[in-house]
Each structure stands twice: as structure tokens, then as C-alpha cells.
Queue: 2 jobs
Job 1
Amino acid sequence: MRITNDQVAVITGGASGIGYGLAEALAGRGVRLVISDIREEGLEKAKVSLTAAGAEVTAVVADVGDAASVRALADRTVAAYGRVDLVCNNAGVVSPPAPLWEQEARVWELMIGVKVLGVVHGVNAFAPLFIEQGTGHFLNTASSGGLAPLPYLTPYTTTMHAVVGLTETLDLELKRVAPALGATVLCPGLVDTPLGQNSAALGAIDLRAGVPAAMQDAAARFGEKLSPREVAESALAAVEAGRVHAAPGGDVAERAQARVEALLADIARG
Ligand SMILES: NC(=O)c1ccc[n+]([C@@H]2O[C@H](COP(=O)([O-])OP(=O)(O)OC[C@H]3O[C@@H](n4cnc5c(N)ncnc54)[C@H](O)[C@@H]3O)[C@@H](O)[C@H]2O)c1
């Protein structure tokens, strides 16, 4: 989908990090924005700085884990602008680092509720509008953890794999309805955002004892962090090229390749 200045984009998790980077990049292309987040204060700050930079912004507090809240977000979008072209299902939290057998049930419920059902709610609320218009694109944020394993983060990794599979399938389903519909999944490596602090503020992880060693290890292994704006530009380039995957980050291709090669080798052995 070409991104043009007569369009409208919705961004969940738009108060911070990658969502905010997407808002800046889309505003730079003249796109009108609906930014949404569960953290009201952060959302207001984001709206003020985007507006100061010249963007046209509507801010809507919504919890992506709640279907009614996301339907209300779609209603507010239509009331504000009468259309929607790009929906970025991006909101997310990270899970605490521990082996799978030590992960608590409430962590699984939160991760599945926010990351998987959050995307499902976004698709259910906005796909009918896209289908009515005959155009529209979903950009769903997953992670490089959706393309290859990330030890000690199974609730996170599981939901990210789900968002990859969901988006690949959604793209095929949308294309069968109309060729100008589609979906892209964003799978970045490590990005410089306050994901840990925001996840702690939302009760998903506990940072009182400092950043856990497993997270520091991951940060050291994956090297240089990307900026949210770099990630946003890479995602929008993929949307414009009609690509189903955007995977910025130096290490991502090698990790995905290692997984795919191991998978194909196992399949070949029967
Ligand atoms: N930071 C990274 O290294 C990285 C790498 C790959 C993928 N991601 C993914 O990118 C997405 C954005 O994360 P980020 O790194 O920009 O972090 P971030 O914390 O800066 O942004 C995430 C935003 O989502 C919001 N949010 C959380 N739960 C919500 C809910 N239930 N409803 C609505 N909003 C909610 C938070 O308040 C926050 O503003 C996440 O899904 C994350 O898993 C992050």
C-alpha cells in the first residue's frame, strides 16, 4: 500500500517506543493519526509532542486486551476522520525471564491477552472498515522472538510466533477479499525503548531488583539496539513494498535462517 497524505493511521501502544516512532514517521508523511495506549499520562505527552511537531493527532485511551475497548477505538477513529488506512497493532509488554516450567499462569494470561488477543481485537474491529473501503493494511508488531527461539522468555516468544503466523494467514485471507488489502508483521531485533519500565509499570514484570541477568544477557548477545524511528521506517518500507515481513536488526536474519535451516533439515530427515 502506498502511504499518502490523505490517509489515516491508528497506532496502539502509540505513547512510547516503536509505536511513537511509527507515529513520527507517519506524521512526517502527512498521515493523520489516532494514537492509542492504556497509559493515559504517556498518551497525553505523546499527543502534545506530535502536535507540536505539526501532526494532526487524536488520542484515545484503550486496552487492546479488551475487545469492547478496541471497538470503541474504531468508532472514535471513524467519528474523527471517517476512514482508516493503516492499523498498527503494536501495543505490548514483555514477560519475566524464567524457564517455561517456572512461568506463572497469570503471565501467560497477560501475554496472550495483550499480544495475541490484542491483535485479534484490532483485526476484528478494523477489518470490516477496510473491506467496506476496499483498501487498508494491518501492521502487526511481533519480534525477532517470533522468528527464532529466545530462551527464558517463552510467554513472550510464544505470542510473537503466534503474531507471525496470524499475520501471514491474515494477509492471504485479506487478499482473497480484495487485492488492495494486506498485512505485514514487524519482527525487529533489540530496540531502544522503555519496554522494561513500561511493562513493570503495567505489572507485567518486576524490576525492583534491577534488570534481570537473562535480559542483560540477551541485550549483550543481540548487540547494537535499533532506534524506534529506524524500526518504524523499515516497517513502513515493507508496507509500501507489499512485503509480509519486516525484520530490521543486524542479527535477525542469521537467527531466522538458523531456525529455518534446522526445521528444513529435520523435515528432510522425515
Ligand atoms: N523493545 C524491543 O527491543 C522490542 C523488540 C521487538 C519487538 N518489540 C515489541 O514492540 C512492541 C512495542 O514495544 P516497545 O519496545 O515500543 O515498548 P514500549 O513500552 O515503549 O511501548 C509499548 C506501549 O504499549 C502500551 N501497552 C501495553 N499494554 C497495553 C494494553 N493492554 N493496551 C494498550 N496499550 C498497551 C504501553 O503502555 C507502551 O506505551 C511490543 O509489542 C514489543 O513486544 C519490542
Job 2
Amino acid sequence: MNNCEIVKDLLPMYIDGLCSETSNKLVEQHLSTCTQCKQIYEQMLNEFEVEQIGLNTIAIQQKQPFEKLNHIFKSYRGFSKMLEWLTVLAVVIMIILIGKGFIDTQGLAANIKHQENIEQEQLNIMNAAFENFATDGASGLEKVSTDYQNRIKYIAVFNIADVEPLAKDYDKPKAIYPLPYERAKVIYESGQLITDNITPSDYDIGTMVMEKDGYIVQFEYARHYLHEVERAFQTKHYSPTTLQLWIPALIAMIVSLCSFFLYRKIKDTNRKVQKLIS
Ligand SMILES: [Zn+2]
């Protein structure tokens, strides 16, 4: 075997850099003297380089989708961070609204209790008036007027026939615009019999009437007590329900839960994507 044959066999390994020092020297020495082998060597080297470029291109092409994925992953992570803050914010708002729900519920319970007390008191005044009137006649009102003078200003009794058709269906205490006092059988104020003309209050929830056994009792609240009556009236007609009080907290709770689950879902996806690209 001449040197050309040996060098041709060695050339692929030489190009790949896999030859020993000794073989390298042998190949280089021969290439510097033999033009035929040198030509073969250059051709092989050329083919090798083209092959390398091809491999690099494939590597770049394979890398590109991962770079895109990495980009998506980064913006996803930003979104996940935002959701995390949104969840925290929603939970804080929810806690505040739950606190408010408790306070408002207690407030409503207090208002309802107050309203019941006012209504019970109205009934007590009416019952006392009817009872005393039945036993002692007109002067029976004097005691009621005295007993409740820190609550009421005037208390009067009417014959139902004298105020028809103004009065009807007052089988329990009812707020009305006052019946005209000049038609009353008797009027008391703080235990005193009133015989002068009275200008009735124009405040239509400050006067209560009730009818029993052909008579009507009417009393007008004392001015200083009107705010209590007003409060009871507001509770009765304009109070929200307990459910309505809790709606803001419920909405905050739903938003918190949705935000939290979305956050968990995205965090989970992030983990999977990270595993895929690392
Ligand atoms: Zn040669």
C-alpha cells in the first residue's frame, strides 16, 4: 500500500479531527508534496463544511419554535402575576365587604327591633286610651295623656260618626294626616284638657289613629320624639333585606374565586410550559 492509499483512508478522520498526532503529521506531510491527494482533501473538506452549514440551519430551525414559546411563556407569566394581584385585591375587598355585611346586618336587626318597639308602644297607647275611655269616659284620657307625655303631644277621641267618611279600617294603629280636632269629643295635652282650637301637625307620619267600638283615638307625637317615629317608618318601608345587604360581599366572593381559579390554572400551564422548554 503506497502513502496515497493510506492518506486517503485517513482523510475523513483527519477532517473530523479524530486522528492521532502521528497520523496528523503523516497526512500533512503527504498533502504538502502530493497534489492529487491535496485535491481530494480539499474536495472532502468542502463537502464537510457544506454538511456542517446544513446541520446548523436545522439546529436554528429547531430552536425557533422554542423561542416563540419562550416569548409566549414570558407574557403568560406577566398575566399570571397580574391575576395574582387581582386575586389579592379581590380578597381584600371581599373581607372589607364581609365586615360591612356583618355591621349592616346588625344595624338592620337593631332597626327592626326599634321599629317593633315603636309599634308595640303605639298599640300600648291606643289600648290604654280605649280601656280608660271605656271605664272613665272622656276624663279617662287624662291618665294616658299624663303617662305618655314624653312621647305624645295631643291625644283625642272622636265619635266615628263625626269623622266619617275620613276614618275607615283603622283596626290597628295607623299613621294618617290628622283628623280635624274640632270634631273631637275630647282632647288632652300633657294631662290637661284642651278646649282651644288646635292647628294639627302637618307631618303626616307623626299622627296615629285607631278605631274600636265606634270610637277613634288619635294621638300626635311630641316634636322631640318624631325622629324615632321617622326611623321606624323608614325601617318599615325602605329597609333593604338581609340578602340585599350581602350582595356586594357575595359578588366580591365570586370575583375572588374566579380570579383565584384562573390564576391557579395559568400557573399550572406555566409550569407545564416551563418543563417543556427547559
Ligand atoms: Zn498522495
